[in-house]
Design a protein that fits this description.
alpha+beta; Butyryl-Coa Dehydrogenase, subunit A, domain 1; Butyryl-CoA Dehydrogenase, subunit A, domain 3; 3 domains; 4-stranded mixed sheet; 4-stranded antiparallel sheet; 13 helices
Amino acid sequence: MDFGWTPEQLELRTEAIAFARRVLDEDVDADDRDGRFPAEKWDKLASWGFFGLSVPSELGGAGLDLMSALLVTEGLGVGCSDGGLLFSASVQAWVVIPTLLRFATEEQQRRHLPGLLDGSVIGALAVTEPESGSDAFAMKTVAERVEGGWRLRGSKLFITNAPVADLVICFARTGAGTLGISAFLVETRTDGVKRGEAMPAQGLRTAPIGELAFEDVFLPEASAFGKPGFGLSIFNEAMEWERSFATAIYVGMLERQLEAACSYARQRRAFGSPISSHQAVSSKLVEMRLRLETARLLLYRACWLKAGGRPAMADAAMAKLWLSECAVASGLDAIQVHGAYGYMTESGVERGLRDAVGTRIHSGTSEIQRLIIARSMKL
């Protein structure tokens, strides 16, 4: 791995930070309090080109190399404190679109990619159900072959972007065993598709998360996504993207959180000196720095492998596991450094902790990441 970033790459990161601070980091407290999806900021992210960072230029994207796009994503996390918006947008940019590029037919790409890139179409990945989350093989949503296509029945729950989604990569059971799961591209305007309301949550409140219901939905043959029966492979590929590049926003957030805590500790005085000079406080800041740098290293390695076309399942799991645990621990330390002020909603510090808790659950819980890593060790 080469950490010698070029001046051009570092400039892209700097530009991302500036854009996020100037355009995205406004009214975050109000949006968080109301649980409002800031659609106007989504549109600005799209116009800025976030959804097409690493998409080839011939398909309408910016054509950046993946590691440069990683730095841009990290920069957005540094500059914007709205974890929900960035999480929602990262699902589009780093889960739905890369999976579409990898598995969609040319016709499917022509039909769906332009809208995803310009933000007029919002995408979602639908796996989790009321009775099946980590255990994907327990899913009850089924797709049955009928004349001219498929008939889809079932429901999905806790799906990011579901309440506002226009296009869903939906996984359904089409047979038995490991080859019994298939994927489909479902447009939510299709008869029988129902989108639920956004569900109130502890954190990531501006990310619309909710339910999708499929009531006897007819899908033409052209809706099949990838080969029938290869849904598990498609899902694993999507999760590698989400656990690596999509989580770069949290590295940025850890950096922003540390900078804010250090700045406050240098200014706040107690017992005649800045609290940053007190070992009890400086030790917490050092731990926050260690978490940031180790999480960054693990993430960069997973992304480097992914960018090179190498298997990254275990590395992405390690990066996601460590990053999510660091986010929660550093969220607690940030509040402690700020004291009572950090505990107050108006400070915005406590929101970092609330947003961090969700990282231990989405994209596979911390327990599932440990299971993936254990299997890679043949345990």
